[in-house]
Automatic annotation (TrEMBL):
InterPro entries with a match to the protein in the record: IolE/XylAMocC-like, Xyl_isomerase-like_sf, Xyl_isomerase-like_TIM-brl
Classification via Pfam families: AP_endonuc_2 (PF01261)
Keyword set includes Isomerase: yes
Stretches assigned to the Xylose isomerase-like TIM barrel domain: 39-242
Listed Gene3D superfamilies: Divalent-metal-dependent TIM barrel enzymes
Highest taxon above the source species: Bacteria
Keywords: Isomerase
Organism field: Streptomyces roseicoloratus
GO molecular function, one term: isomerase activity
Keyword Zinc-finger annotated: no
Name assigned to this protein: Sugar phosphate isomerase/epimerase
Length: 305
């Protein structure tokens, strides 16, 4: 691997991919490719870094996973968890149990990041409204305070940096809620995983966010949205799961935002960042992801990465 201390600014962004780009949303689902095929194909497409995806999809025995990734030339950048911390202390123990198993595996694999996605306010598959889409002032305090606690705990116990992922159909989504969340949390404990596709889906401008809150950007997910499909999603108030099935997330460079300006803004931060391709494709034909991954890796090389 390249020595990070000798990187030029343009090479301080490390590219990877994730099970999500192979249509993997769940630990076990007959519509998903087997984990062995994912590992074979993500390496074959030219990526060196991966995320763990849903806990239990990849082997959870660190020795087994290290063997399987190592012989394919792959390394792990992060684990991902879903949380509902706006519900307050009553959910802490359950949340921590979920976080701890993911964080322990990430640490064992040499990863340094934990991606945290807020809970959905409506079911991402059925569209059932689970709770109000707007948090009360008290719920915001619970969300920010407990996220800071989570950031402190995972750093002290597992050596991981917590990066919160704004996500469609959650309470941290577009510019208003993202900036409110960032302004209310300690930069030393909470960073941001900027997902370019989700932020565009929710009306945000990734370049503006990076230029305004650059010190909070700790991780990137690269994806694009199809503007025509997104217009239909908005008009029909379509839930996120059906929107993905309709093709709202598309292969770059066909959608928005344009990734070249986003990557230029990220380079200007002059920090080491992971930029993980995470193209939502659930469900998909098992033969569809690999050619997309190959083309996407080629496109990112054309961007200097």
């Amino acid at each position: 691997m390249t020595n990070l201390t000798n990187r030029s600014p343009s090479s301080r962004i490390r590219i990877g991919s994730a099970p999500d780009s192979w249509g993997v949303w769940f630990p076990d689902d007959p519509r998903q490719v087997p984990w062995q095929r994912f590992l074979d194909e993500v390496a074959g497409a030219g990526y060196e870094w991966i995320e763990l995806g849903p806990y239990g999809y990849l082997p959870t025995d660190p020795a087994v996973l290290a063997e399987e990734t190592g012989r394919r030339g792959l390394r792990v950048s992060a684990a991902t968890v879903f949380t509902g911390l706006h519900h307050g202390p009553a959910v802490w123990d359950r949340t921590w149990a979920h976080v701890a198993e993911n964080a322990a595996l990430a640490q064992a694999m040499g990863a340094r990041h934990l991606v945290v996605i807020p809970a959905f306010w409506r079911d991402d598959r059925t569209g059932e409204v689970l709770e109000d889409r707007t948090l009360t002032a008290g719920q915001w305090r619970q969300l920010t305070g407990l996220t800071e606690r989570l950031g402190r705990e995972v750093r002290e116990r597992y050596g991981l940096r917590l990066v919160v992922h704004p996500h469609a159909d959650t309470h941290i989504d577009g510019e208003e809620n993202v900036t409110r969340f960032l302004d209310a949390t300690d930069p030393d404990l909470v960073a941001l995983c900027l997902d370019t596709g989700h932020y565009a889906y929710c009306g945000g401008d990734s370049v503006k966010l990076i230029e305004t809150y650059g010190e909070r950007i700790g991780y990137l997910h690269l994806k694009q949205v199809d503007p025509a499909v997104l217009a239909r999603v908005v008009a029909e108030e379509m839930p996120f799961g059906p929107a993905v099935a309709a093709g709202v997330m598309c292969e770059p460079p066909a959608g928005t935002p344009a990734l070249e300006p986003v990557l230029a803004a990220a380079r200007a931060l002059d920090v080491d960042l992971f930029a993980i391709v995470e193209q939502d494709m659930y469900p998909c034909d098992p033969d569809a992801p690999y050619p997309v991954a190959v083309r996407t890796r080629g496109f990112l090389r054309s961007c200097g990465l």
